[in-house]
Amino acid sequence: MAVLLAVSCSCQRHATDRDDLPPGDPRAGVPCGALECRQYDSFVDAFESTLRGHPLAVAVGEAHAQFGTSVPSSAKHFADEILPRLKGRASDLLVELMNPPTGCAKTTEVVRQEQTAVTRSQAPTDQGEYVAMGDKARALGIVPDLLRPTCADLDAVKAAGEDAIPASLSMIARLTRAQATKLLARDAASPADREKMVVTYGGAIHIDPSPPPERADWSFGPALVAATGGRYVAVDVFVPELIDGSESWKRRPFTAHYDRAKLGAKTTVFREGATYVIVLPVAGASD
Prior knowledge:
Low-confidence stretches: 9-16
Strand content: 15-25%
Number of strands: 10
Number of domains: 1
Distance between the termini: 38 Å
Helix content: 25-40%
């Protein structure tokens, strides 16, 4: 099966509801500053703190691992530490990989080449880690799936020319929105799966429940907020070693408050509007 790596709300309860947890509950965390900053002893505790409102859809976003990065990626942390906790709680895992259809191989290759400007900086292991994540989900009884563009979808990206990357981002959001909505409707009609979560995993740019107008076409968040009646959680998971002084990171409010020297030994959670941001510990810091 040929796969193509894609380029690239919250629940009704508010993050500060962690304050009403009983003393010693690991989901409460320890306050650490602005943007409702909390620190946790583990990634598991931090992630569980975002699920307290019993969401029906959980979108996990990452910054794709970059070429030459030697530390474990967000995807590996999620697959190894979080997926096992979702056994029996999640029905499906939709990953941001594309499975191009047969019959348009030439167009698929053109689109792949047009994405090279973005993907050449990514670690060659990225795609394999997404596949491995799906395999692990299947072993846990969570049904994995990927995005299935049509030849017409890929033709549209090809025809976009210099705008191929924005067109790809819009396609990813649309395909994820459509597939996740179908899965949510299926769960709602099934007594066995009615309260289970549909989980998506991919680029952070796609999950914002309240995206700015210029990025609205790239996000499936608002649609899943509507499809779940507000029971949607967006969680960005970042490896601190990837957070640098580039403009793309500076645009994220949490970076002004994340001090690796002070906070890097533990898992840190911020709240950017309706999105949770989890910054993993510096590699080796908590060993």
